[in-house]
Amino acid sequence: MAALRRLLARWRSDKGAEFVEFALAFPLLLLVVLGIIDFGLLFQQYEVITNAAREGARVAVLPNYTAADARARAEQYITDSLITGGEVATVSVGAPTATPIGGNCMFTVTVTVTYPHQFLFLSGIGNYFGASFTSKQLTAQSTMRTEIVSGVCP
């Protein structure tokens, strides 16, 4: 009976309990931290393409500038922001659109930028659990009115 008490006393020991708790909690903590990093990068890239769309729209509405100039400015902004990791952003500049306001006409130009964001950590973690988080298409649009005063809408 004494031997059984000694064996049960060893099993009741708390030695190693912290290690077991850490082993259970660490993967969840790591998942949360890597998810925060991945979504932080996604948000940063979304802000860059939003600002690129604004830059392109600003150039598109200025007098004596063309859609090619606006596209080049948006692409230059994306290149200067260093977000391209092999992916290519697509920039499209729409034709001026007439909008009647009161008795006058206002023209607006819309610039759309799309960028395929590749998840760094979530794709591997998602594949382990059977989900697919490989990429997300980010799209940003900016519409501005032209600087040229117009008369009556056509």
How is this fold's topology laid out?
Elements: H1 2-11, H2 17-60, H3 67-80, E1 90-93, E2 97-101, E3 104-118, H4 122-128, E4 135-145
Helix pairs in contact: 2-3
Helix content: 40-55%
N-to-C SSE string, H for helix and E for strand? HHHEEEHE
Uncertain stretches of 5 or more adjacent residues: none
H/I helix tally: 4
* Biggest sheet descriptor: 4 strands, antiparallel
Mean pLDDT: 83
The radius of gyration over CA amounts to 28 Å
Distance between the termini: 103 Å
Question: Per DSSP, what share of the residues sits in E-state strands of 2 or more residues?
Answer: 15-25%
Query: How many DSSP E strands?
Result: 4
Shape: rod-shaped
* SS content category: alpha+beta
Number of domains as seen in the coordinates: 1
Structure characterization notes:
The chain has one domain (16-145). Helices cover 49% and strands 23% of the residues. It has helices spanning 2-11, 17-60, 67-80, 122-128, and strands at residues 90-93, 97-101, 104-118, 135-145. Strands 1, 2, 3 and 4 form a 4-stranded antiparallel sheet that branches. It is rod-shaped and about 105 Å long.
